[in-house]
Write the structure tokens for this entry.
Amino acid sequence: MNIMKFFKNVSREMKKVSWPKGRELTSYTITVITTVAFVAVFFALIDLGISQFLNLLF
């Protein structure tokens, strides 16, 4: 019976959550996608630079 009590508590807590509205959700999504793209490009450039440096050494 503990599992049923757990899910009942989860359901109760989920009703208290303040869910984002449409505009907020769009804004957050764009922020996350932009940040991920920036980090991906950053690490790709770092990787390229390290690869070029290692190719010069050997």
